[in-house]
Amino acid sequence: xxxxxVGQPIRVGIVGAGANTRTRxxxxxxxxxxxxxxxxxxxxxxxxxxxxxAFGIPKVGADWRDVVADEAVTxxxxxxxxxxxxxxxxxxxxxxxxxxxxxxxxLNAREAREMLAAxxxxxxxxxxxxxxxxxxxxxxxxxxxxxDGYLGELFAIDVRGATKAFADLTAPMTWRQDIGLSGVxxxxxxxxxxxxxxxxxxxxxxxxxxxxxxQGRPHPAGGRxxxxxxxxxxxxxxxxxxxxxxxxxxxxxxLAEPESGAWLYGAEGTLVLDLAxxxxxxxxxxxxxxxxxxxxxxxxxxxxxxxxFVQAIRGREPVRLTTFSEGVxxxxxxxxxxxxxxxxxxxxxxxx
Length: 352
Known about the structure:
Blueprint: E1 10-15, H1 19-30, E2 35-41, H2 45-55, E3 59-60, H3 64-69, E4 75-78, H4 85-94, E5 98-101, H5 109-120, E6 127-129, H6 136-147, E7 154-161, H7 179-182, H8 189-200, E8 203-211, E9 216-218, E10 224-226, E11 232-239, E12 244-250, E13 260-266, E14 269-274, E15 279-284, E16 291-292, H9 305-313, H10 324-343, E17 347-348
Parallel strand pairs: 1-2, 1-4, 2-3, 4-5, 5-6, 7-12
Antiparallel strand pairs: 7-13, 8-11, 8-17, 9-10, 11-12, 13-14, 14-15, 15-16
Helix pairs in contact: 4-5, 5-10, 6-8, 8-10
């Protein structure tokens, strides 16, 4: 299949139309010239029809295979839970479709590797994982400061993804707490690690502890479900850059302050990403307090996932955020965390 030119519309079929697909992907794609969304399949035909009516999509599939097999479809957007990312991606690529898949990339590292291998068998097709979004505005500035020596030698990193709310241990299980639907990722572990890797590179070894505070929860379909996804996890990581990182993610830290952010400590400076305050702070040796670092417009990133995907299909730019190769790396990290916590030992990366 040859890449569409400007004169050939890119026809997108959607598999899974959850909140992110409806609020970001569909409007983002429909805003691009020469892009048409021609079909949608959701968890039920009824919900698919509602999405189709809301966005003017002409066809509703009863099954995701209907979308993948549709000869009119040029590219497939996969907005399902992670349990379907692997089969839909592999079949879409085999059918000659470009693929944009929601994060997390897959249930586990094995599935992610198989998705990467499938993409490599079809190098003419574009594949992209929806990137971690909440640091996009700051990523380029942080990379620039580190590259210019603002920190000097990087010694230590702290990352926190927490909540101020006290845990509701009686609430029904959500899909994120169902390991069969969400896989081995825990809370915001994967999304934060992906952002961290953009700044400083990847980890070479991890040691982790985790805690499941609610051993069971009501299942939405009835009965009671055993919970295997932790409510709280601490990770120590040796980074390839030489720094030691401590990452904590929690759904049980009531009144945590601050909730989420990142702290990078070097020989010559400190950088702090304050997400709640939407600020990048820093200080260099000799300073007594952190001050806000202004980000010039040319250094401010933004959400452009749909645009990047379409531009890559048209051969105008490569996929940067996020490639399947990078997705495999963060999937290996999240799996290494789960293995370390289960086995009580350090796990080396990349996984064998």
